[in-house]
Amino acid sequence: DAGITQSPRHKVTETGTPVTLRCHQTENHRYMYWYRQDPGHGLRLIHYSYGVKDTDKGEVSDGYSVSRSKTEDFLLTLESATSSQTSVYFCAISGGRQSYEQYFGPGTRLTVT
Amino acid sequence: QKEVEQDPGPLSVPEGAIVSLNCTYSNSAFQYFMWYRQYSRKGPELLMYTYSSGNKEDGRFTAQVDKSSKYISLFIRDSQPSDSATYLCAMSAGDMRFGAGTRLTVKP
Question: Among residues A55, B23, B45, B86, which is most buried (max CB within 10 A)?
Fold first, then answer.
């Protein structure tokens, strides 16, 4: 998975609790992305980062926040998890914003009960 | 209407068959067209990409883009059981937009 790890790989949490997912890369790529994957919707961009402390919203950013304090780490936080946020979350990296080549991590399966 | 439409299948073919996977899109600004392959419980991996219109061949795989019709295709020749996966089309003009994926099973 191109030097990308995600943690945890699986998590079950209750509605209303905060959750943080971590993405770690060893490729020194500038751009990092968080996607969610749901049946019938494919992959949808939540947030992305173009450098340390530089982030922007994606297509489905409501209810999510991100932080990037180091080049290699990109955190996704669900401030108060809801059942609609049950999904598989993928982190991806690329060398450039227009890059067609995004490398994906193994995913985190999150269930909100 | 979604920006990218892809038939989710599932699609089941016998080994050796030619497979055709397709996507349509509505945003004429898309310039990069990609196909990703995703095995069960794994992250997507880039299979092929095409810039603008035209064809691109890589071994048993051929990608076609028809911008006038807003239609892209992926052909797999001599399909193998190891090709069984979900295939995602993706397009980019900045942010990447993905199709929902087509689940393919190649039976021995």
Answer: B23
